[in-house]
Amino acid sequence: MTTTEERWSPRLWGTLVVLCAALFLDALDVSMVGVALPSIRTELGLSTSSLQWVVSGYVLGYGGLLLLGGRAADLLGRRRVFLIALGVFAAASLFGGMVDSGGLLIASRFLKGIAAAFTAPAGLSIITTTFAEGPARNRALSIYTTCGASGFSLGLVLSGVLTEVGWRWTFLSPVPVALLALAAGIRLIPRQTGPERTGGGYDLAGAVTATGGLLLLVYTVTEAQGAGWASARTVLSLLAVAALFAAFVAVERRTAHPLVRLTIFRNGSVTRANLAALAFFGTYTGFQFVATLYLQTLLGWSALEMALGFLPAGVLVAVASTRMGAIVDRFGTSRLMVAGFAALVAGYALFLRIGVHGSYPGLVLPSMILIGVACALCIPSLNIAATSGVSDEEQGLASGLVNTSFQVGGAVVLAVVTAVVTAGSGGGTSAQAQLDGYRPAVALVTGVALLGLLATLAGVVLDRRRLVAATRAAAVAVPDYRYPGPETSDAPSPATASGGTADPAASAASIRR
């Protein structure tokens, strides 16, 4: 049942809190493990190549199975998939905190990534099918995505404290929260009143080729640094990825019940949101990697100092969350994404001033403030745009697509940034050698963010053209309607003509598409 009420019931709020808790835990887990890596390596005796898989194992499971997780939510039931995956996440967290070998720890991380690949699209699609498209959904998604950003920021600080006690607590601390969310979810998340599955079959061939292609892509870009980007192993792996995706497209075009209805990409909002998600999270992941190395290795900051340095970005997101729903309603997702990417590009560009000595107020803080503004504007807007105009039966698919874009973008850009840092430094450990690796990496991140800005600008231009065309069509259809111009100051504004909102995406479907 979809709600359009302005006042939400206690049960509706409870459902949203449970979904937010799951996303909060996903983000918390990603940020907490990074700070604990040195302690994990010391206690378990891991090599550098093995240690990276503590992070990459999670990304592999998450990014590789998100698309399948989204479709599973549509076919098997969003509530069922969400609750089962949340239980698996809690069990994997407990297991990860108790293991005594690197292999088992990596296995637990992979399992947690798989669980998150099912909770994320299922949770997002529960929101988009529970809250009607428009102000109610915008408000819910703003709260939801803010919890994810807050979890990431809090995880940076919390991990610094917990690691001082013992790295295992970074794995164990999410367990009670996950169990409480699971118990509350069983009671509060409503059951689907009608059948969620609309087709008569499962696209097994599509699931195998899509999941195999995504898993191999994430694995290839993660391993490319060690094997070499031009090595036969990397080239053959990338060719295999291309073959799998080509097979996937061929299967989806011929099957009666596809895993991904390819025509969903005819929805301009969905396509642009996924491209922007690739650029947004990819650049942020790459930037955080470089900034962490610079602050801790070159400037000698502690893990806790570094985490506190990133905190202003999270605080800005949390503060802005109380107004983001109204802001989206007023300005629309397209304009907010442009503003967010502009802030992102400026924040990265300012960090190009890094040197052997750098002050927090003069160097780091301005970038953190701009990145915080970008996160506050872009993350809710991307999720709203990626699910706008999509039927309830395919909300899991749309949610899985945008989450896949976030994760795959992060994995690919991070791999390239790591290669740039390594090549630029030439393996040197001097301050200048490190800077020679960091600066081109930040420049790369800035360039990718600029491409994202151009893509979002193109969306604004297309939306404006469609709105003008629709307004002219309305003027022809209604003789008394006067097209807005200098001589008709009392004529309706473009916002009024599109249904009371400044964003064409909120107007009628013919205008929006």
TrEMBL record:
Domain Major facilitator superfamily (MFS) profile as annotated: residue spans: 15-464
GO cellular component: plasma membrane
Topology in membrane: Multi-pass membrane protein
CDD domains named in the record: MFS_MMR_MDR_like
InterPro entries given in the database record: MFS, MFS_dom, MFS_trans_sf, Sugar_transporter_CS
GO molecular function: transmembrane transporter activity
Any single GO BP term: response to antibiotic
Residues covered by region (Disordered): 481-513
Protein known as: MFS transporter
Lineage: Bacteria, Bacillati, Actinomycetota, Actinomycetes, Kitasatosporales
Annotated TM spans: 12-38, 50-69, 81-98, 110-131, 143-163, 169-189, 201-222, 234-252, 273-295, 301-320, 332-351, 363-385, 397-421, 441-462
Xref: PANTHER family: BLR6921 PROTEIN, MAJOR FACILITATOR SUPERFAMILY MULTIDRUG TRANSPORTER MFSC
Keyword Amino-acid biosynthesis: no
Keywords, sorted A to Z: Antibiotic resistance, Cell membrane, Membrane, Transmembrane, Transmembrane helix, Transport
Subcellular location: Cell membrane
Xref: Pfam families: MFS_1
UniProt keyword ATP-binding present: no
